[in-house]
Amino acid sequence: MQTTHQTALETKHAVLDRRIAEETHRPLPDAIIVAGLKKQKLRLKEELSGI
């Protein structure tokens, strides 16, 4: 059974995934922004795996 919290985390994870893709496809992607987004995405993934 999926909780509201889990659904919210999955939504945030998907948004971060899209933002990472958008940033990496820019002509001059900002590596610092990409790294920060990836860290956030990893934290969400770890929290999801703990549920």
From TrEMBL:
<dbReference type="Pfam" id="PF04325">
    <property type="entry name" value="DUF465"/>
</dbReference>
<protein>
    <submittedName>
        <fullName>DUF465 domain-containing protein</fullName>
    </submittedName>
</protein>
<dbReference type="InterPro" id="IPR038444">
    <property type="entry name" value="DUF465_sf"/>
</dbReference>
<dbReference type="InterPro" id="IPR007420">
    <property type="entry name" value="DUF465"/>
</dbReference>
